[in-house]
Specification:
CATH architecture: Roll
Largest sheet: 7 strands, antiparallel
Low-confidence stretches: none
Helix content: 10-25%
Mean pLDDT: 95
Bound molecules: flavin mononucleotide
CATH class: Mainly Beta
Number of strands: 9
Length: about 170
């Protein structure tokens, strides 16, 4: 049997590196901090991430074809607090940020240069509180080694939506 505390202790020990995922559909854009993500194939180069059904980014993500993944560094606390602590339902998180808009319309955060553009392959809803989005990498760029911002660094933050919230109906 898996107790909740043993599960949580293991996950805390893993202490995932954090990314900001952004996406855009028509004239709407969104993004949030994500701790559930991983490379999921070597060749072809696939990457998977999980979006909480409570999040604004999930609602957009169901319709989006492309996602940008920005790997956060230890210097990125402010942007992590913005994208992890506020919801796009009631805040324009992109206001005042320096953005590059790529040819698919994705907002890329200029202050986060370690990033990839991903194209969606499939979405899996296995009944959990997050859905899995599998993708293939379309482009990747970076500035070499960095110290990742990790889940423990955001332990003080109340997420914009908790995973216990009811799923947002798209
Ligand atoms: C450390 C940490 C890890 C998180 N991991 C995820 C995640 O893997 N997937 C997800 O959808 N949300 C995750 N969140 C929650 C969202 O980033 C947060 O609720 C955000 O405010 C949602 O914004 P939105 O409603 O604009 O999408 C995480 C938050 C924190 C602080």
């Amino acid at each position: 049997m898996v107790t909740e505390s043993a599960f949580n202790t293991l996950m805390a020990a893993v202490n995932s590196p954090l990314i900001v995922v952004t996406t855009a559909v028509d004239d709407e854009r969104g993004g949030c901090v994500v701790g559930f993500h991983s490379q999921s194939s070597i060749g072809p180069q696939h990457y998977s991430l999980w979006l909480s059904k409570a999040n604004h980014t999930y609602v957009l993500g169901l319709r989006a074809r492309h996602f940008a993944v920005h790997f956060l560094t230890s210097e990125d606390m402010e942007i992590a607090e913005l994208f992890g602590g506020r919801s796009g339902k009631d805040t324009d998180k992109f206001a005042g940020l320096d953005l590059d808009i790529d040819d698919t319309g994705l907002p890329l955060l200029r202050q986060c240069p370690n990033r990839m553009v991903l194209e969606r392959l499939a979405v899996l809803d296995d009944g959990g509180d997050h859905v899995c989005v599998t993708t293939r990498a379309v482009s990747a760029e970076g500035e070499g080694e960095f110290v990742p911002l990790r889940a423990v660094d955001l332990a003080h933050l109340d997420p914009g939506h908790s995973s216990e919230e009811r799923a947002i109906r798209p």
